[in-house]
Amino acid sequence: MEKKKHSILNVFDLVVIALIVVLAVVLFIMTRPQPSQSQEDAAPASRTIRYTVEFAGMQNGTAELIKAGDVLLERGKLYDLGTIESVTVSPTTYLNFDYETNEYKLTEMSTEQTVVAVVVAACTENDRQILIGGKQEIKVGGSYRFNGPGYYSAGTVIGIER
């Protein structure tokens, strides 16, 4: 008896063909030339900016460690985030509901302080982003980890002055 050869592809062959097609598409996407960038994107402007950082909920006594002239670094990668120009310390306040009067009231926390610091830093910027020291992107509302001489804290950027 003679065996007939089947020319129909089985499932394994289809999987191998699909993998080869996917690999070819990925290689094409990775090796294609990138679209040319505009002149503003290619050469970002270098300048100095001021941004305001709020360190909320600091324990009493630790806020006094933050002083004008301190150099701030990003806590993880140690990028230079600028120099503190001015510092304002105030008691931390929270919005609480008073059940006796059925009103919301601002309540001062006696054990916590809020520090608002104005920081001056060299940056590069273009239409899409501001990079402090050419490495750390900074945005209003962004939370960052700051490391200063003798202290570290998380802070939120509440304003940028260009």
Can you give a write-up of this model?
Helix content is 15%, strand content 51%. The protein has 2 helices and 8 strands. The termini are far apart. The model has no long low-confidence stretch (mean pLDDT 86). The chain has one domain (39-161): Aminomethyltransferase beta-barrel domains (Elongation Factor Tu (Ef-tu), domain 3), CATH 2.40.30.110. It has 162 residues and is an alpha+beta fold. It has helices at 11-31, 39-42; strands at 45-59, 71-74, 80-98, 103-125, 130-132, 136-137, 143-148, 151-161. The protein has a 6-stranded antiparallel barrel with strand order 1-4-3-2-7-8. β7 and β8 (151-161) form a beta hairpin.
Give the tags:
single chain; 162 residues; alpha+beta; Elongation Factor Tu (Ef-tu), domain 3; six-stranded antiparallel barrel; 15% helix; 51% strand; elongated
Q: How would you concisely characterize the structure shown here?
A:
With 162 residues, the chain is an alpha+beta fold. The chain has helices spanning 11-31, 39-42; strands at 45-59, 71-74, 80-98, 103-125, 130-132, 136-137, 143-148, 151-161. The chain has a six-stranded antiparallel beta barrel.
| Spatial gap, N to C terminus | 88 Å
Helix content: 10-25%
Q: What's the shape?
A: elongated
Radius of gyration: 28 Å
User: How many independent structural domains?
Assistant: 1
Q: How many separate helices?
A: 2
What fraction of the residues are assigned to beta strands by DSSP? over 45%
**Largest sheet at a glance?**
6 strands, antiparallel, barrel
Give the helices and strands as they follow along the chain.
Answer: HHEEEEEEEE
- Overall mean pLDDT stands at 86
Under the CATH scheme, which class? Mainly Beta
| The named CATH superfamily | Aminomethyltransferase beta-barrel domains
Structural class: alpha+beta
**Neighbour order of strands in the largest sheet:** 1-4-3-2-7-8
Q: Segments where pLDDT lies below 50 for 5+ residues? A: none
Please state the second-level CATH architecture.
Beta Barrel
